[in-house]
Write the structure tokens for this entry.
Amino acid sequence: MLKVAGEICGLHAQVMSSAELMLWARVEGLTKGAVPRAVWEHRTLVKIWAMRGTLHLLPVSELPMWQGALSTSRRYRRPAFWRRVLGITLDELDQLTQAIGAALDGRVMTRDELAQEVGRQIGSVELGAKLAQGTWGTVLKPAAFAGSLCFGPSVGQRVRYTRPATWVAALPAPMNAEPATAALTRRFLSAYGPATYHDFARWWGHCGVATARQWIAALGDGVTQVELAGERAWMLAADAREARDLPSQRSVRLLPAFDQYVIGASRHADLLLPGKLRSRVYRPQGWVSPVLLVNGLMQGVWRHEIQGSRIEIVIEPFVKTPTWVRRAAAEEAERLATFLGGTLSLGWKK
């Protein structure tokens, strides 16, 4: 479970139930509840803001790499943004970020508690109160990138935060930026290659195309250039050699909402869809639909609902599906119902 979570560059965790289903789709024998137990009990996964400033679950053992790479981010270093959103300067943001790390040292706090403590530490209740403003916690993200904040266990509906070094015993220091970005770039290309510079910059969300080009070039002979739909793209050299000899295989998978495969393919999604159907998968406000994946192509969407002991799954294909696809999708649905602990009720929507 942890190995796969690391190999695909973490689990998108905006919706925790989807994060668990990402591993269900990839790990045979995964038991329900294994992911939340790993986060809140065993502390082998950590919930934190990462690439693109979105919530992810990352293996704790790899947190030093992620912290080293995230420390290079300039995503939230735009003075005009902070003036417009919270009416503060970059200096005041840095004050808040530093105080957040000090306040969370050895403690787990709600956002309101954190705002009060930070206000006390910096001697400004008004500035501390800025931490309680905003829907998405944007003002807290620079502290996460600095290695000073991660999520702790909630109390009821109240989200709580702590320091990674407080939450995880004997956490190694963050890697230096250069080896961290090199390790991150290799991990991205391993999971999502072949990829262009634009793909990498868009996925990471903390750098431009020039930086993406620099980070990929830094891998030297470890990467090789290939062609992707008429564009120059890059793969790890070892992966490119292996890919040449791979036989074609049939596969049918039910990928959950926000799945990393679908997110990673977003810029080239039109090549993986049978027609102008992008909006059926990539929906408004950043929502990404569950996908019926056939031989790597997005050939439908699906949904599930738990009704007591019954798991209702409805698959809506985009194209006419042959018998073998329906049979394989039904097996996937049965596997999901077993994972969720219920009896399958499967429907197909025309």
Q: What stands out?
A: The CA atoms of residues 194 and 235 lie 5 Å apart.
